[in-house]
């Protein structure tokens, strides 16, 4: 047989092999729903300075952060007719109280219905570091939760916690997206160092349409985080970003730079809640030539699904 005639057969076989390898290595989720349970704006429920979201992915429920005040998340869930008693996994994006404040209250309340509710707490390495000039309330939270039967699982690198569902672990600060206060310090054996919130981690869901990123505050920087995802999970588009991204104080120049980078990742949809900043969200929307259907300010009760995309709360629509 002519060698040229064999080429299409070889290419077809090679492509099939590559597709098979990729399918074996990376799992894409089939269903996903993200519901905001704590942020400042609220059409239904209670608004507060904090963040929390319920992640429902392929039949699994995960609580991402727990808001600020003890009762907010549970009350908002009730107002939205959401049952949290079957949520056994909770992710804490970092140690700040506006993301961890509801955890003990939720564990105590929900374990009456389900002893395993919020019994697995996923955190980034560094969350228990000794903060030199601020009170690290996460220590008290940890001790109380352990007494209540919960366990802490610590991550320092990207880890697939469920099929197609990843945690970033610690994110290197390659770009100067310095979006923490600069006043905090961490006590180490060799002295005090700047507290840049080293434990900051995000949730990443791998879908057929691209990655969905869920962030609490994004202290590591949204672009640093996205580059970390594509370098260490797998290359691909990051089509959706949900949560807090701490751009509230970003300059116009920094927002323009951020938007250009986001465009390179293929970002199509965004729910900018909590510390993202209202004006910052609108500025990014303008740079990305997006609209109020695809890029919105986050509010309690808003949703994202793979089928329908962003469903904004009335106040933010």
TrEMBL record:
Key words of the record: Signal
Protein name per UniProt: MBL fold metallo-hydrolase
UniProt domain Metallo-beta-lactamase: residue ranges: 51-114
One Pfam family hit: Lactamase_B
InterPro entries given in the database record: DHPS-like_MBL-fold (IPR041712), Metallo-B-lactamas (IPR001279), Metallo-beta-lactamase_dom (IPR052926), RibonucZ/Hydroxyglut_hydro (IPR036866)
Domain of life (superkingdom): Bacteria
Gene3D superfamilies: Ribonuclease Z/Hydroxyacylglutathione hydrolase-like
Extent of the signal sequence: 1-23
Keyword Signal appears in the UniProt entry: yes
